[in-house]
Amino acid sequence: MLSTLSIYELAGGAVTEVLATDRLIEAPNWTPDGRALIVNGDGRLFRVPLDAPVLVRIDTGHAVACNNDHGVSPDGGRLAISDSTDTGQSCIWVLPVTGGSPHRVTGKVPSWWHGWSPDGEALAYVGRRDGEFGLYTTGSGGGEERLLISGGDHYDGPDYSPDGEWIWFNSDRGGSMDLWRIRVAGGDPERMTDDDRVNWFPHPSPDGRSVLYLSYGPGTQGHPRDRDVELRLLDQADGAVVTLLALIGGQGTINVPCWSPDGGRFAFVRYGPGRP
């Protein structure tokens, strides 16, 4: 199975293939300087310089069971990872973006990182507590976790709006998997999509005008890999949705924030047979 790390240009819709590999890689983040992408694979994290695309391993210390929930702080200095080496379940850690010894952030597990606040002071993540999924925030250096919303339904993919006022997420709380948002300060969530598709992993654009997300066909259970999926863009002004690209993907394609710093591009991974 081939993993192809790619970039989509909003102006014109061109797709540039950055790196193709037989290794399973997932979930690209863009570094704030625009010079590299970060992906995970085989429990490790890798930096991919755009001027010479190869997988350069990032030292994550003892954390060698990293999953696809990771991301770079807004100032570019820190990297949040989700790793199960110590606990057997996903736990959030923060380390220097260049690599080094990670600092544990979440005391409770399982916890899966999904977003940095725009000021870099807080993290948004998914937790499962007493059998229920919920969305939480905590300080980027650790501390008490704060519950935003939870229940018997599924909650996933929390990502901050660029103004820091909202957290977007996906949930089946309305009967099907759709996009929602909730104020960081709390309150009732707002449903943002309502169609027959199965919609996951919303990522607000840096200018706040649109939201990129992953869309499966009707009836899909969970967020599996190697499916016919679409990358879609929701216009926040009028709610219009545009399909940007159809591809083989799913789990690993855009699980975490993937916009370029200027908002003109985003990174994604597609999957398929073949060899590089």
From TrEMBL:
SUPFAM superfamilies: DPP6 N-terminal domain-like. PANTHER family: PROTEIN TOLB, PROTEIN TOLB HOMOLOG. InterPro entries: 6-blade_b-propeller_TolB-like, WD40. Belongs to the TolB family. This is WD40 repeat protein.
